[in-house]
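Blackboard transcription, Thursday session:
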Amino acid sequence: MFLRNQWYVACRAEEVTDKPLGRKVCNESMVFFKGPTGAIAAVEDFCPHRGAPLSLGRVCEGQLVCGYHGLVMGCDGHTVSMPGHQVRGFEPVKSFPVIERYGFVWVWPGDADKVDQTKMPVFEWFENPAWAYGGGLYHIGCDYRLMIDNLMDLSHETYVHATSIGQTEIDETPSQTVTEGNAVVTRRLMEGIKAPPFWQMAMRANDLPEDALVDRWQICRFSPPSHVMIEVGVALSGKGGYHAEAKDKAYSVVVDFITPETNSSIHYFWGMVRQFKPQDSELTAKIRDGQAKIFSEDLQMLEMQQKNIEAHPERKLKILSIDAGGVMSRRVIERLLAEERNT
Amino acid sequence: MFLRNQWYVACRAEEVTDKPLGRKVCNESMVFFKGPTGAIAAVEDFCPHRGAPLSLGRVCEGQLVCGYHGLVMGCDGHTVSMPGHQVRGFEPVKSFPVIERYGFVWVWPGDADKVDQTKMPVFEWFENPAWAYGGGLYHIGCDYRLMIDNLMDLSHETYVHATSIGQTEIDETPSQTVTEGNAVVTRRLMEGIKAPPFWQMAMRANDLPEDALVDRWQICRFSPPSHVMIEVGVALSGKGGYHAEAKDKAYSVVVDFITPETNSSIHYFWGMVRQFKPQDSELTAKIRDGQAKIFSEDLQMLEMQQKNIEAHPERKLKILSIDAGGVMSRRVIERLLAEERNT
Amino acid sequence: MFLRNQWYVACRAEEVTDKPLGRKVCNESMVFFKGPTGAIAAVEDFCPHRGAPLSLGRVCEGQLVCGYHGLVMGCDGHTVSMPGHQVRGFEPVKSFPVIERYGFVWVWPGDADKVDQTKMPVFEWFENPAWAYGGGLYHIGCDYRLMIDNLMDLSHETYVHATSIGQTEIDETPSQTVTEGNAVVTRRLMEGIKAPPFWQMAMRANDLPEDALVDRWQICRFSPPSHVMIEVGVALSGKGGYHAEAKDKAYSVVVDFITPETNSSIHYFWGMVRQFKPQDSELTAKIRDGQAKIFSEDLQMLEMQQKNIEAHPERKLKILSIDAGGVMSRRVIERLLAEERNT
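(Written on the board underneath:)
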């Protein structure tokens, strides 16, 4: 169903405080906590003593103390100690490789002995002060692939997000989709159009005339296991479009990390990084609020779509040219799933 | 379980506005909308493109526009168009025959090629200005047949509705039940009794002395698939009872349309038409409010009865003389179900 | 799963008022009501007429009148009468032996012909004015045995109840567990320690210096089917501990009646009887409020433990010395379950 030997975003780093955080990722109940070095660790949320949830416990000197009977769990899933008991014979619980990067906690839910740092994606903008990031988290009751479909086909903006980022020109402009290794890229370029409300706001914020004709671009990039980065922006028409100088455009990247919780639910980490006015935290908050509203418009659609598909497993959905991004992304996933099964 | 080749009430006509309305009828997820002529149409609430719920879309010039990617669905379940795509090869979704009548939208959830206008019930009072109607809708978690049982045996009024329409005389007076073709009729006549609170109110409204002795009648009529009309009223005692002149009685009909949603839930359209003071809209509202309260008293009973029966599928329920109405109605349903299976 | 031929607490006696009370015990839906002598009776919450819940009815002269159609049910599960009907042929529903004692209603969910008064537990303190009782009821979504485990191993107090009754000395002091017939007793004695907050309060209430060193004891006693009485207290250090004179100690018994509702939920009747200031009803209320808070701290732990165990049926939980009380109690239950199957 989903790839296991991959890095998934489990949470924002700040969600793991002095207290442990319980979260299910790819059907694995995990607990995240700060280990002895301050680095975040993840083990099964299951005390090897009596099955209590370790996430109800506390962290003491970098070890997780079960809130039921005080078993002390180490970052590696081995029981360290327990008041009044020998713990040598205790079966370990699973521990999960973790990388803390870009403000997120990334977890590898699969086989720990196959952990592969090179699979960790690289994002230039998170660590570059010329960019600013804002984002949030939604829990959605749908198969993670429906969310990939959604993001790899932005023609839905015209309908779902008609009042913010949608415009009929999206629909009327064909997109091109290509596979680049394990990535899938869908491009749509619209020239000489009027910017929709969200982008008018971005142009104002960037000191550009909001009423001017613009060239608009949407470049959706899927990469395994389920990340979708979308380069979006508008430039004053005739100034080079995507390649225009920074002063002539408003440019940002929609950052989507989709983490399967179960077969029919996801943690959806949405956000946006932008290249303009990165120090303006008020603008960051404003964009995040706008994006929160826009992405909330997809929730009901995706959850009802999930129910419809579950009710009719016999039906084959149509595959149109606009679906190429989702379809090709699913093919990459299928190919990698087959590889996982064979190794 | 339930008859499919029949007309069921799906909604009040006013529920279908400029926006489409999603509702499940007989396990079919349907969406209702106004077609190009203004007539209401019903198709599956399932977009043939990617399974999105069409009910989240909008209506544009009598066609349903999917709220996800703009597929345009016609009243007949065939895709009309989709921005940027050829739709000739699209599989149609089911469309459901609809009749708009009496302020309701009637739908035929079964085989469209067996649609039969003559099965549409005829109600004289809805279109006669000498009558006034008021009603409402309850969603109840029970098998639709438990609601038929309820309405075909009004001896429950003595217990469930003790403070409004119940009185011990109902219990003490036997009823007669007969089958008339596919209809089942249960009659109970009580003579020289005191009217219960609801009927005292109706007598006052009809300028009759509320304390007078009355003859009271209850004539429950089941007709397929699951309609129950109940003629109810009181006349000043000795004035002819059911056949008394209008000035000597308060007379109305309880109008019940029971629409299965699933095997264990219903849309229950309750209401009342009355022959007295039909122009008095304040009285209509007052009666509707009273009826809403009375019918709400059945909700918990029916839902817990459903749970009890599900927990004990092995138990055979008693069939008493008071149950004749429900039992005979179920026999009609069984006979028609067998006919449906054989055609 | 649970013993059936045993006495379980169904409710506090005052919960059965003029109205009947519906409650599920050991997967049996029961209705409790006051019979003709005023004694509480219990029958299935299932009307033999049409399966309606009798608990929605009313009590009339010691008989239960169904709220749907007026069937009159006797204390023995036989239908007494029904308006307008002969009831001789009606199948009886189950009736359940009931004992009203100690302020509780005890029910025997098993075979009525095996009812055994000698299995009814005897508690001296409930009827002795030198003792005062206060308690409450929690509904918890867990197997009743997880609650027995919890109460037979008070080392969890150090972690779950750190701010009230927990203290590290509990953890550091080994306990002894023995089986005494069908009972299991776990003892822990701590000498020369400081009293935790709850016991400091009890000492103040008992006119003892709250800062004094004390000897503390915890004697947990499981008895079938699922009662756990815990003698707890503190005495001024060196005054004889458990056997100290009343003036030198604060002594009480935690009274726990665990009643399975289903295989994965319980009615948990918690409470405390105390030997000091029994007439002080303000103190009773204060202790009950404190205990309500303490026991509420176990709820989430037990419900999440239940879910964890259900998710991993293949895992064998560890059995440590601290678990001896729970483990030996489960063994008693297993032995008695085998006896039930063989008789």
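Lecturer's comment: The interface with chain A takes residues 29, 45-46, 48-53, 56-57, 65-70, 82-85, 90 of chain B (CB under 8 Å).
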